[in-house]
Design goal:
Elements (H helix, E strand, L loop, with lengths): L2 H6 L19 H23 L6 H20 L9 H32 L1 H12 L1
Amino acid sequence: MNVANEALAGHGPHGAHGAHGSGHGPSQKQYIIGFVLAILLTAVPFALVMRHSGIGTGVLIAAFAVAQIVVHVVYFLHVNNSPEQRWNLTALLYTVLMVGIIMIGSLWIMHHLYSSMTPGAMHHMVWSAKH
């Protein structure tokens, strides 16, 4: 049976293996769990900001953002530690490492420039050069 006939008969291009109920792919339950978690991980930081919560709000928002990234990667992108996903997981971890290095390096450079270019530091540098 060719692909067109299989489609007309209600089968996927690979027979019964391509069907949604075969257990190989993500289930609708996983998508619903991911969606509910994503909504909660959005609503809680939103409520914190709307209430004008005090100290620690930025840290909480960052923690919820990281948790939401994990939910999206696991429930929607389906990246896990299975053998089929090993290269995707490796690429994701490499990307996280590179972004972290770039962010930390940029913050370090900006802090160094700020501490070197403040008016007090410039006055101290000029004063020590004259004497």
